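Quick one:
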Amino acid sequence: MPEPTGPALDGDARYRSPGRPGAKSGEALAERIEAEIVEQGWPVGTLLGTEPELLERYGVSRPVLREAIRLLEHHMVAEMRRGAGGGLRVRVPDPSMVTNAAALYLDFKRVRVRQLYSARILLEARCVELAVERLTEEGIAELRAVVERLRTSDAVQVVELSHELERLIADLSGDPVLALFVKVLLQLAHQHAVPIEERRARRRSVYALRDHQVGIAEAIISGDAPTARLRLVRYLEGAAASARRRLLAAAAAGAEPASVRADGIT
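Output:
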């Protein structure tokens, strides 16, 4: 790691962020180390230094350094390894940290069914188009494996596998930004998935949605982007209609959660 640049201040004061009044020294130091990691191209596995080396390099107190390390580990940017050969090393971030947090925030904002599915149609349709453009033999094999699982799964498993197919299509798009936002919306949908008992009771409708999913995958495999896109839109419109019916039924039965509006997600 390069030596830190900037004002030659002594001790912890060097890492008080001027752009964030009142920011704690540990937080500012964590931001500084994160910025250095990004500048270096995120070298996974690189040893940033042992605790004594980091204390000397950044000129801070041990409590400030340990708070910075705690934040780096929480953000899944780096991790401190103990013992021989230990030290602070750059790690691969876990995208589920982002998707779970974002989905929980959208839950807090009480996203409505129409908002969720409108966004999914917009983003997932673009993913389908890109997936067809960039499809490889490996991608075709992955799609066929999901199709096989869909065809041999029961109604309880099909809903989970629908999200697996959509996550795969997002990845096959080759666009990490689109893929991340799609996965946030899928996580939100997963948090409000149809209860297992209801899936068993509504096998026919669940299998109808399954057939739409298989059709989407088959169109992508054949390189037919317009058909894949059309099938995706019909699938998501059907899923949205099903979600709205469940909401209305729950509201009519007085079973709707108090924290959710009648036009929200249940």
